[in-house]
Design a protein that fits this description.
Blueprint lengths: L1 H32 L13 E4 L4 E4 L4 E6 L2 E5 L16 E3 L8 H7 L32 E3 L7 E3 L21 E5 L28
Antiparallel strand pairs: 1-2, 1-5, 2-3, 3-4, 4-8, 6-7
Length: about 210
């Protein structure tokens, strides 16, 4: 009878092991989705919060989330009123769903990071695991295996000339609204698509 009781425990442990392996695979995929200007040191990122501009960036769809009136809008490029340098401004990694609905909490918690804090970004990293990020100076060295897209190998290739700019796609003018500030319910539009817009924006004007 004791041996029979052990079977459910073994099955439970096996399921836990498989879940952990699946989670690891998802982390590998997310690494290649992170922004070129994102901070190093994170295997998985869902949102960046930019204290200087008080806006968010949703990594899975490469879209910014900013407040307009009483609604949070999701766009591929921030409006011209924002003039922040994405590479030098501080980014806070938040792995929580829709953190903008708790904006008052994050705004106060990370206010000190608006100015004066430096961060190493993915673009400048020499770690080969970041070569999978599009736009990285060494991205051309990465070859994805056709049998397993989550694994990568590094091959020798011609060095990328210093100062070469990453290709920036044209802006998709469509925007989506991730939710009403009060209700938090989605209000139409699909999330997804390729990122666009300039890699430099600016600090939010006072009074907004």
């Amino acid at each position: 009878m004791k041996s029979k009781k052990k079977y459910p425990i073994l099955i439970f442990l096996f399921i836990g092991f498989l879940s952990n392996r699946l989670a690891t695979a998802q982390v590998t995929i997310n690494l290649s989705s992170q922004a070129l200007w994102g901070p190093v040191g994170y295997s998985y990122v869902e949102y960046y919060y930019l204290p200087e501009a008080e806006v968010y960036y949703y990594v899975p769809t490469s879209q910014f989330v900013y407040l307009k009136g009483n609604r949070w809008l999701m766009v591929y490029s921030l409006p011209t009123i924002y003039h922040i340098n994405l590479y030098s401004t501080y980014k806070v990694v938040i792995n929580q769903p829709r953190p903008y609905l708790q904006h008052n909490v994050y705004k106060v918690k990370y206010a000190k990071y608006k100015k004066g804090y430096k961060q190493a970004v993915i673009r400048d990293s020499k770690d080969s695991k970041y070569f999978v990020v599009k736009g990285h100076p060494s991205h051309s060295k990465v070859k994805v295996k056709s049998t397993d897209k989550t694994k990568t190998t590094v091959k020798e290739s011609k060095p990328v000339k210093s100062g070469k700019k990453a290709v920036v796609e044209k802006q998709n003018k469509s925007t989506t609204s991730p939710g009403n500030k009060q209700s938090g319910k989605p209000s139409g539009g699909k999330q997804g698509g390729k990122p666009a817009g300039n890699t430099s924006h600016g600090s939010k004007k006072k009074g907004h």
